Amino acid sequence: MQLPVAVPQTVNEQVQHQPSADDGQFVPNFLSPQMLDSGVDFDTHFREFTSFLDGVGLSAEWSPFFGDPDRHEEPIDPGLTQDDNEETSPRQGAPTRAGTPFSSWLPSAPTGNRISNYVSDTDNPRAIDPETRPFKVTEEQRLKLKTSILDHSHLLDPAFCVPSRHALTRYVTSFFGGFHTHMPFIHIPTWQINDHSPELIFGIAAIGAQYCFESRASERLFFAGKALLMERLRRDAHSFGVSSVPIPHAVPHNGRRSDAGNDAAVETIRALITLMGFATWEPKASMVQESFALQGILTQVLRNSGLEDVDEPASPTPSDQPSDGNSLWHEWKTWIKQESNRRSKLIGFSFLHTHSIAYNVYPTLRSNEIGLRLPCSTKEWKAPTPALWRTATKEIQEPQLFFREALSLLLKNKNDTAPLLPIPTPLGNYVLLHGLLQRIHIVRDLSLPVTSSSAVLPSEEVEKLERGLRSWTSCWQQAPESTLDPNNENGPIPFTSSSLLSLAYVRIYLHLGPYRQLETRDPQRIANAIAGSPDIERSDGVIAALLYSAHMIGIPVRLGVDRVARSQAFFWSVRHSLSGLDCAVLLSKWLSKLGETLAERPLSDSEDRILHWVRCIVEEAYTVVDFDQGADTDNPTLLDFRDPSNLCLAVLKIWAHFFKSNTQWPFINIIGVGLEKYREILIHKNIG
């Protein structure tokens, strides 16, 4: 494997014209030829992580490669001392492509008025962005929605009323600007609100109201949507083989159903995704139970709707012969339905697994059940007209792989090259990563000894999983759409995937699932559970997980902890916070173990570099973040970051502050308070 020694020339060109440090981040050449010539034997994990940073344009600052690891008083950013005239050469062995993410290794946090742009007064055509106009709800559309639920008004709370057209516009716009960017299963160019069921519209509005910080309205909309959904399930159970009461062992639908039945099932899947998506992250424990009930129903509907792309092409191949507008329009609409259905099912699968990650429940829908093709390219999906769609489709040389096939190839691959052809799209890579995470969960569950909940994965399985993750990363790096700036046309999915990649590495070595108890929504119980989780042993294997954990905390520190926390709705999803929790605990446990064992076991070179990297990140955060006053003020020795035990507490403090500052989902605030209380437990333990 050849070690990359420089970043592409595009970085040099971009740095020269960046208007401010805020708009473009400098990526230093952190693997200089001088370092390679010095004969330093870089650890394999560091090489892989360097390739990861280099390939996706992530921050090279606070890198474990710059200088000697014990130079604690040196500047944090070595790039500041680099000669501006120094030229860089193209990265060896890496593809160059248009839209390379080097121009923005991390997303810019939305500006102060970014959120308000999504909720502007839609009555004034001059005050609204053109992209928000499809989401404007007219009074006529609102009345149609209201009329459609009149026959079921007895099912709803007597106090419930359909929100005004202004409120509906606000909610729908916020849903598509926030939640949907992370899980794009509705075709926005052809979106019409009255084409969809009331339960889906209310589910969308419930999430949108939450993004608008209107909690009471969001909860009312959720229960209205759920009531309508349950009535539809009761009335039309024969259409997709499910009742309103979960059936433990529903038989999958293997036959070909009618178009009407399939459309009804997929619309129900979409409604379930939105309703479950709302309930899963609500702060009330009772709402968590609602999400579990919806989880069972979603699993049934997905199975019975059919999870196989049997005898269907990945996308219709446009004819080379001229065609009239009507036939092209029909062809496009047929493809939209097919791709929307596929995406709804794949995203339903991925969200079920996100629920499994959050609450440590055995996956209800397994990867081997998914016989669907991976999603199409962003260009095809976002094409606003039939003609542009045809142009985008003609650029596709071969159809996307089937999910099962692609996942199998990742796990079988023996080297670091990308084994998948064609390279999956960002959403396809995201779904595949859920498949790899699910394997970690299932293999660990099968490896669990009866008397212990801290099972260590078999070494051969660890090797296979890490090989699969490296193969996945290689595919991700080569995907033309895998830029990390969510403000571009491809959205925040690649950035979200980077956090799940960190989670995957952490979960190989830390079995935190049973020790979080997030479903209780009780910060003290969460803290006590984490305190009882297994320790992390010092080993060469855990280095990769530590690298990604350090990078996870480096992201908000680099962008500004409070800045990101208060404006994160459009690129920092709940999945980032779930990943951040596991990364925070793993890194803090490792630092604590260092403090306990350093006297009898010196640091390895890899450990020394990671320790130095974490110290730089912590010192940067403590310089600028306005932390709450606490035990640190009364005990200044906790600010001595030469002690790994103090770094352990500092890492927890940064993450706790970040989670508590979240303004979007109160559930994340609960995680922050839980981490804060866990930190207090460690402080009292050390004092005792």
UniProtKB/TrEMBL annotation:
Keyword annotations: Metal-binding, Nucleus, Repeat, Zinc, Zinc-finger
Amino acid composition bias (Polar residues), ranges on this chain: 9-19, 101-122
Locations listed in the record: Nucleus
GO molecular function, one term: RNA polymerase II cis-regulatory region sequence-specific DNA binding
Xylanolytic transcriptional activator regulatory domain boundaries: 173-442
GO cellular component: chromatin; nucleus
Keyword Cell inner membrane recorded: no
Keyword rRNA processing listed: no
GO biological process, one term: DNA-templated transcription
InterPro entries: VerF-like (IPR051059), XnlR_reg_dom (IPR007219)
Region of interest called Disordered, as start-end residue ranges on this chain: 1-26, 64-130
Annotated protein name in UniProt: Xylanolytic transcriptional activator regulatory domain-containing protein
Organism of this sequence: Fusarium oxysporum f. sp. lycopersici (strain 4287 / CBS 123668 / FGSC 9935 / NRRL 34936) (Fusarium vascular wilt of tomato)
